[in-house]
Amino acid sequence: MSTLPPGLTETGFFGNVLATFDAAARYTSHPQGLLDQIKYCNAVYRVRFPVQTGSGVVVFEGFRAEHSQHRLPGKGGVRFSEDVTQDDVMALSALMTFKCAVVKVPFGGAKGGVRINPRSWSESDLERVTRRYAAELLRKGFLGPAEDVPAPDVGTGPREMAWIADTYRAMRAQDRDALAVVTGKPSSMHGIPGRVEATGRGVFHAIAQCLSVSEDVRELGLSTGVAGKRFAVQGLGNVGYHAAKCLSEAGAQLVGIGQREGTLLDPDGMDVDAVAAHRRETGTLRGFEGRAHFDPDPGAVFRCECDVLVPAGVEGQITADNAADVRAKLVVEGANGPTTPEADRILRDRGVLVIPDMYANAGGVTVSYFEWLKNINHVSFGRLSPASVRDDWRGGEGQRGDGRELDYVRAGLDETMSWAYHEIRDLWRARHLPDLRTAALVFAIDKIAESYRIQGVFP
């Protein structure tokens, strides 16, 4: 019988992940010892470090969880939030392990965070905090191109990744692969075009693939194809914005947007760029000009009359308390862990199809893998075509190659999201599994178990 390691309980976000894992593991035939190795975190680092800020010396708390080292390096974002906890990074690192396995990216899962509200600190203070956090991770072996590779997450972006990469280069000047220590870097630091949009674009591809299967779509009472579908997005950050942008460009109608301050609703559709510009300028959805109605209840987005709902904020948004209110026929998890296990069961019983996070938002780690490969191999994909090589020799300095690199990235992402969906969908149908989440986890468990057996760790 499986038991939790000392100090852990079956509660909270990580407890939800463990419960979901156990539910899926019942559909596998792997021995309990192997399942326990796959299930729990290999290593968790908690650190407190002082930083000289503009308001004096402040002590910050940071975390890094390496859930699985069946493949190296570990891969996962760094979250800057005053709400981040050790439980959060453990849960998110586990989801990263399963996500990488679902899209067959050869990484283990990891996640990190610092308890800080980035909006409350100056850029120079944030730089000091980021660099000190990176130095602490490196000192304990939780950072390196072949060990553990961070990426952006809530509260961080290309700027923070540039600071981490520069800190690593300064401390490991002899490492010729130093730029591969993080992904999601600015293009000026050998990042990759298409990384910022990748997670949201991947969500779009997940929806498009699901809506292309006539049998599944018919069960939902929908027609095939994205065009004409009404959708709502909870969370208009990077993931939500790019998912909404791609869906709108494909002919779908944005009828609801939820944020912490409330929900914007318009059954006739909204322009996502206009809404995003308004929120950047004012800091709120309130006061948006046009026909849209503002509801001060953030939960109103879940009651929005739509075909597709994309929760793209943070974890634990669809719960047992509001799952019965969801009006969408298809829920696509742009965020990590937005649906609790209890809510998952309610949605399934109501006939709502949920496309799980470990597949739906895997676009980010897929393109991160492309960036890591680019940095490890010291070559841009855009320079591999004969035309781009000729341009460089003629003094074009790769401008055309950069455009081709974006084409390659998008094509690779599209192909990955396509075959991954049909692999887990076919497993779901062939083995009569309860839902797509179970199918995705069974698929991931089987892939990770295979890796351990190849290494000779388990018979």
What average pLDDT do the residues reach?
Answer: 92
Task: State the separation between the terminal residues, measured CA to CA.
Answer: 19 Å
* Top-tier CATH class of the domain at 198-360: Alpha Beta
Question: Order of strands across the biggest sheet?
Answer: 9-8-7-6-10-11-12
As for the CATH topology of the domain at 198-360, it is Rossmann fold
Overall shape: it is globular
Q: Which structural class do the helices and strands define?
A: alpha/beta
Unreliable stretches (pLDDT < 50, length at least 5) are 1-10, 392-400
The CATH architecture of the domain at 198-360 would be 3-Layer(aba) Sandwich
- How helix-rich are the residues, as a percent range? 40-55%
Q: What is the helix tally?
A: 15
> What's the CATH superfamily of the domain at 198-360, by name?
NAD(P)-binding Rossmann-like Domain
Range of strand content: 15-25%
Q: What would you report as the Rg, rounded to the nearest angstrom?
A: 22 Å
How many strands, which pairing sense, and closed or not: the largest β-sheet?
A: 7 strands, mixed
Number-wise, the strands total 12
Listing every helix as H and every strand as E from the N terminus to the C terminus, the arrangement reads HHEEEHEHEHHHEHEEHEEEHEHHHHH
